[in-house]
Design brief:
By secondary structure, this protein is an alpha/beta fold. It has a single domain, classed as TIM Barrel, CATH 3.20.20.70. The protein is built from ten helices and 14 strands. The strands form four sheets. The chain has an eight-stranded parallel barrel with strand order 3-4-5-10-11-12-13-14, surrounded by five helices. A two-stranded antiparallel sheet has the order 1-2. The protein has a two-stranded parallel sheet with strand order 6-9. The two termini are about 35 Å apart. About 50% of the residues are buried.
């Protein structure tokens, strides 16, 4: 096999049959005025499917709860008009031979006062904290928790009904579900707070509710992270034993695939092993894992100790080679590509054909060109 062939091997994960190992990472773009997917969204996802992405995970799409949205012009996944918009996206991706999953999202206390569609609605969090010691929004009642669980379950049911191939739950980066995981923001003294395992209860009930709605075979992906947007250095789990304790309840609840968000895929997660977060997750759970983090980015995004990854064109060719080697060694099953695929919809084809000199420097692209 050539250096990158491991990236282009087909894989079957339960009912999810993928033509290769490359996943389009979820990336918020705010291209949906009125919170409804439109023709620009359709063209954007259709183009990546046509150019060989194995699985597309959409930008975060807000579930049907009054405090779910934190940003203008992001798409929703509730209401007749928004679901009809997503149906067009799904049909276009399938017509090009692609597979697609929505990322189900609730921002929690990230929501700022005045955010659409109802500017009077506050942010919600486990105990009213956006970060340790900083009160923001409203502490969730049991009724609020039940409402959010129902919103995720309904979003998953609707996603399955309109033809999505899987769903991803956004449990990372300091948004609502992650705020329950994080000791600094979850100060509850009921069954949803307490030790590390107790703090997974909210996420597990969301997973269980979704499983009840979509049946035993519909794939549920769960995205989690150590880092938070409130604190890039934050870590929930400092040892493999702590990570194991965190992941087991989610596996038991019904997660099929873990999407392990890191900022640099080559960074080892724990001392004594070069495996990254996805590698450890796969090892501990036996579940398929998606790795992610600065895949294929250029010199401006690569640490000094990894400059040997950069070829003469300034593109991280060696970065891709290391990634493919880890994949070939069964450290993880899938690879999520974010900004590199955002700026170049033909990225998959160019890598597959070894056309590395044609990969575009991300830093030179205008956001207005990324369609």
């Amino acid at each position: 096999m050539s250096t990158t062939d491991a990236l282009f091997q087909p894989i079957t994960l339960g009912k999810l049959e993928l033509s290769n190992r490359i996943v389009m990472a979820p990336m918020t773009r705010t291209y949906s005025p009125g919170n409804v997917p439109n023709d620009l969204n359709v063209a954007y996802y259709e183009r990546r499917a046509a150019n060989g992405v194995g699985l597309i995970i959409t930008e975060g799409t807000c579930v049907g709860h009054k405090g779910a949205n934190g940003y203008a012009r992001v798409p929703f996944i509730y209401g007749e008009e928004a679901l009809a918009g997503w149906k067009k996206v799904v049909d276009a991706v399938h017509a090009k031979g692609g597979k697609i999953a929505p990322q189900l999202w609730h921002v929690g206390a990230v929501r700022k006062e005045g955010t659409e569609p109802d500017p009077s609605v506050p942010g919600y969090s486990p105990s009213g904290l956006f970060k340790p010691g900083r009160e923001t929004g409203v502490a969730m009642t049991k009724d609020d928790i039940n409402d959010v669980i129902e919103a995720f379950a309904q979003a998953a049911e609707d996603s399955q009904r309109i033809g999505f191939d899987a769903v991803e739950i956004h449990g990372a980066h300091g948004y609502l579900i992650d705020q329950f995981f994080w000791e600094g923001t979850n100060q509850r003294d009921d069954e949803y707070g307490g030790d590390q395992v107790a703090r997974t209860r909210f996420a597990c009930e969301i997973v269980q509710a979704i499983r009840d709605r979509v049946g035993p075979d519909f794939p549920i992906i769960f995205r989690f992270s150590q880092w938070k947007q409130q604190d890039y250095s934050a870590r929930m789990c400092n040892t493999p034993e702590e990570l194991d304790a965190f992941l087991k309840p989610l596996v038991n609840a019904g997660v099929d695939i873990f999407h392990c968000s890191t900022r640099r895929f080559w960074e080892k997660e724990f001392e004594g092993s070069d495996m990254n977060l996805a590698g450890w997750t796969r090892k501990l759970t036996g579940k398929p894992a998606i790795t992610v983090g600065s895949v294929g980015l250029n010199a401006g995004f690569i640490d000094e100790d990894k400059r040997d990854m950069i070829d003469a064109s300034g593109v991280a060719h060696g970065n891709i080679n290391e990634l493919a080697e880890r994949l070939g060694n069964d450290e993880f099953e899938l690879v999520a590509v974010g900004r590199a695929l955002l700026q170049d919809p033909e990225w998959v084809i160019k890598v597959r054909e070894g056309r590395f000199d044609e990969l575009t420097d991300y830093s030179k692209k205008s956001l207005m060109e990324l369609v």
